[in-house]
Design brief:
With 253 residues, this protein is an alpha+beta fold. The protein folds into two domains: 130 residues, Roll (Nuclear Transport Factor 2, Chain: A); 95 residues, Nucleic acid-binding proteins (OB fold (Dihydrolipoamide Acetyltransferase, E2P), Beta Barrel). The chain is 24% helix and 36% strand. The longest helix is centred in the N-terminal third of the chain and has 19 residues. It starts with 5 loop residues before the first helix and ends with a strand.
């Protein structure tokens, strides 16, 4: 039988500080920068749109969009992915204050007239997670990139959140996993940390908040969107449940 030594393992490293959120006023400014780019794209002004992007993005465009057809496709693609609805759910700022990211839920309304039969009916709102990155260059913020994620509603949830003893877990095979935290629940006898691995939620079970605190772990680090890496044991029958033996908070840029 493997011994539960989670608290001891936690003390092997120094926990990093969490990424700071973006100031509300700056968040508003960044969204305006993003909207300005999309408005320029809607007008078909390629050169102006490129100039509104970061230096790294502009370099990439020069290298990859060499023909008029390439540039036309670029503009059409950007028009197609421009959100009709946008809600910021999280934000983070780099330590040096030169990079910022807005994690959003973006909605796109299916237009009328699409001929693809696999497309939902016109008017349907398609939702996805969208991370929008910005960089500060020469004292000014520039839109750098956007990364499209999955529809939050299509996530495979971890439905079985019941706490069980270590005997319910397979102690013959160690496992490692990691990803951003979805939510944390502090219970009298344990701590439940639900984190995301691609399109699937996993339930990680830790000692109680009181036990973690006595062991020297700062439980304030367990916040949504914080990225964790852990080692432990998989449940014998529910593959989305893990008994945690070691957990690390991953430092972000």
């Amino acid at each position: 039988m493997r011994t539960f030594i989670f608290c001891c393992l936690l003390l092997l490293g120094v926990a990093p500080a969490l990424a700071a959120p973006v100031d509300p006023a700056l968040q508003k400014q960044l969204l305006e920068i993003y909207d300005e780019f999309n408005a320029t794209v809607a007008k078909g002004e390629y050169q102006k749109a490129v100039a509104q992007r970061s230096a790294a993005s502009q370099k990439m465009f020069r290298e990859q969009l060499k023909t008029a057809q390439d540039r036309k496709a670029f503009m059409e693609m950007n028009k197609a992915v421009t959100p009709d609805q946008l809600t910021v759910v999280h934000s983070k700022m780099s330590k040096d204050g030169t990079k910022a990211a807005l994690i959003t839920h973006a909605g796109k309304i299916v237009p009328v007239g699409l001929k693809d039969k696999s497309t939902p009916p016109a008017g349907t709102v398609l939702t996805s997670e969208l991370t929008i990155a910005f960089v500060k260059e020469g004292g000014k913020w520039k839109y750098e990139s956007q990364t499209l994620g999955m529809d939050p509603a299509s996530m495979q949830r971890c439905e079985d959140t019941k706490f069980e003893p270590i005997t319910a877990y397979d102690d013959t095979v160690a496992t490692s996993a990691g990803g951003p935290i979805v939510r944390v629940e502090f219970k009298p006898d344990h701590t439940l940390v639900i984190f995301r691995v691609l399109d699937e939620e996993n339930c990680a079970f830790l000692p109680s908040k009181e036990t973690l605190t006595k062991g020297g772990f700062d439980t304030a680090l367990l916040q949504p969107y914080t990225v964790i890496s852990l080692d432990g044991l998989r449940h014998k029958t529910s593959k989305q449940k893990l008994w945690v033996e070691q957990l690390d908070i991953l430092e972000e840029d």
